[in-house]
Structures are given as structure tokens and as C-alpha cells.
Design brief:
By secondary structure, the protein is an alpha/beta fold. It contains twelve helices and eleven strands. It folds into two domains: 175 residues, Rossmann fold (3-Layer(aba) Sandwich); 105 residues, UDP-galactose 4-epimerase, domain 1. The protein is globular, with a radius of gyration of 19 Å. Pfam families: NAD_binding_10.
Length: 328
């Protein structure tokens, strides 16, 4: 197939949220492909971990995606024509901020959406009860309504999620040789796509948005990791690479929601409920017609195979589990 990231280069781009791994890798990839990259940050003094020694190649500008005025100022300062954005909960699905960046000169957007939006479903038909899908769909709808050319990248289960949604990394447990983990549906299969790969796909699209001189208003790319693992197997792999024992607590859905929403993560309760229902249905399966093409999309967009979960852990476990076990 033709490389979807050739020709029509964007030479000046802005990345909102570069302190996150996806945003950081998007910035790196866009820069690697020749774009001038601006880092739009709420706190311009904050460290961007994945940029490391290459950070001097990037300009910083203050902006908050939930504040349309700051978005306008950042885009005007940068002169960027393409932007990377992610979900920030607002009352209007980021519509005000997207309109502001469009008025300030942005012509193309790469938005990190979610695989939980069903294929071939109008984003306006996603029910509010499907909280995570609904919130991302609202941003996609805003982009469509504004007639702002964009790509919706729809990754499935982030390889970083177990560190945020399963492991207890509180100070009381992180100093020991054992980590506690809390899961609902431990046999649920997930694809473990690396944030590195999601960010590289976004950065490639930012720097070279289309091989066509008249790209469509909207393109969608599902993204998946190359192997399906159960939650239990994924946590066992973390323990093996980190050199610690992982004690898995298998909770029923109601108890897991309580732990995530009230005791451990402060995850919004509706989002926790949605996740338990999604896990019960099965997150990803090899029989899902979207799965194989979503794995292939990583190579098509980045020119490299999707990273395995073990490879992701070897690269990042020490940073994600500071002071724990061997740390990768």
C-alpha cells in the first residue's frame, strides 16, 4: 500500500500535552521528519521525559487545551498549521478550543481518540452511558462540525495502563519487593499498544498528513499492539521484567469500581463502570475484524512494526517503577 505519510509536509506544528508519553513521542517523530515543533504546555518549566537530550530542538509555549484564549495565543505565537490534541474534559467537547485554534491558523489536527468507539458508527450516536467513547466521540463531532481536516487515531489498550489502573504504586508498596494489583476480569484480553507507537503514528501524520493534494476531511486509523495478553499475563510480565512479585487481587466489578474510584486512583466512577463493562465484553479479540488492520496500521504509519509488551517493558519499566525491584 502507499505510504499514507508521504508528501504534503507540514513544516510547523504544535503538540499539546507533550509531557505525556504519546505527546512526547509525537513531538519527537514530527521533528525527526523535518517539522518545526512547538510544545504547548500548561507549565513550560516541566520536564518532558521522552525528549531528554533532544529537548533543545523544541520551542515551548504556554497553553491549556481547556482555555480557548490560551490556545489562540499559543497557535499565533507558533505560526503552526497542524496540531496534536488529546482529550481534555470540557462542557463542549473541546469545541471552543478547536474553533480557536482553527481561527488562529490551524488547518489540520491529529486527535488521540479511542478504539472503544464502534466501527462504522456515527460519532453522534455513541451513547452517553459509554463514557470514555462518548467523550472522545464528542471531540470528533466537533472537528467534523468545524470542517477542520483531521485524523482520529483510535488506539486500543495502552501498554502503560496497568501501571495506572491495576498496580498500587503508593509509597507504602513501591519500596518492597512485592506489588499489589487489582483487576476485574483477569482473563480479559488486551492488545497492549505502546504509547511510543501511538505517538510516532501521530507525529508522522502531523509532519506529513496525506499523500493526496486534497485529503479527506476526516480519516480514522485504529491502532493495536501485536499480541493479545490477559490482564493476569500482562501483570506477570511486569513482575518478571521488574524483578518483583506481583500479587493480583481479583475483584468483582462493583468492588473494582470502588477501589478505582474511591480508594486508589480517583478514577471518575462512570469511567470505572464503563471499563468494567468493556472488560466483561472483551476488550480486543483476534476475531475482531478491526484487530489485524489496526496492528498493520502501526507499520503503515511509522515504518516499523508495533512494539511487543515485553519490549515496551524493557524500555520503560525502570521509569514507570522507580525504585522497585530490578526496574527493567
Amino acid at each position: 500500500m502507499a505510504n499514507p505519510t508521504s508528501n504534503c509536509n507540514n513544516n510547523n506544528v504544535i503538540v499539546f500535552g507533550p509531557t505525556g508519553d504519546v505527546g512526547g513521542f509525537a513531538a519527537l517523530e514530527a521533528s525527526r521528519r523535518g517539522a518545526k515543533v512547538w510544545l504547548a504546555m500548561r507549565d513550560t518549566t516541566k520536564t518532558v521525559a521522552v525528549l531528554q537530550e533532544k529537548e533543545s530542538s523544541f520551542e515551548r509555549v504556554r497553553a491549556d487545551l481547556s482555555d480557548a484564549a490560551s490556545v489562540t495565543a499559543a497557535v499565533r505565537t507558533s505560526g503552526a498549521t497542524a496540531a496534536f490534541v488529546y482529550l481534555v474534559p470540557t462542557n463542549d467537547g473541546l469545541r471552543s478550543s478547536l474553533a480557536a485554534m482553527q481561527a488562529a491558523g490551524i488547518e489540520f489536527v491529529v486527535f488521540i481518540s479511542t478504539y472503544s468507539i464502534p466501527s462504522n458508527v456515527d460519532v453522534r450516536a455513541v451513547p452517553a452511558s459509554s463514557v470514555i467513547a462518548f467523550e472522545h466521540a464528542a471531540v470528533e463531532a466537533a472537528l467534523e462540525d468545524l470542517q477542520l481536516a483531521h485524523v482520529a487515531l483510535r488506539p486500543a489498550y495502552f501498554a502503560s495502563n496497568p501501571f495506572k489502573l491495576a498496580l498500587d504504586l503508593s509509597s507504602s508498596s513501591s519500596s518492597s519487593s512485592c506489588l499489589e494489583a487489582y483487576v476485574s476480569n483477569g482473563d480479559c484480553l488486551v492488545d497492549c499498544i505502546a504509547p511510543d507507537d501511538i505517538g510516532r503514528a501521530a507525529g508522522a501524520l502531523l509532519a506529513s498528513p496525506s499523500s493526496s493534494s486534497s485529503p479527506p476531511l476526516k480519516r480514522i486509523f485504529n491502532l493495536c499492539g501485536p499480541q493479545l495478553l490477559t490482564f493476569d499475563a500482562m501483570l506477570a510480565a511486569i513482575g518478571r521484567v521488574a524483578g518483583v512479585d506481583v500479587h493480583i487481587h481479583h475483584l468483582d466489578a462493583a468492588r473494582w469500581v470502588d477501589v478505582m474510584a474511591d480508594e486508589l486512583r480517583a478514577l471518575p466512577r462512570p469511567a470505572a463502570v464503563f471499563l468494567t463493562e468493556y472488560y466483561a465484553r472483551g476488550f480486543v479479540s483476534a476475531q475482531d475484524a478491526r484487530y489485524a488492520p489496526a496492528v498493520a496500521n502501526v507499520r503503515a504509519l511509522t515504518d516499523r512494526d508495533a512494539m511487543s509488551f515485553d519490549e515496551y517493558l524493557r524500555l520503560h519499566c525502570r521509569r514507570l517503577l522507580p525504585g522497585v525491584g530490578g526496574g527493567g
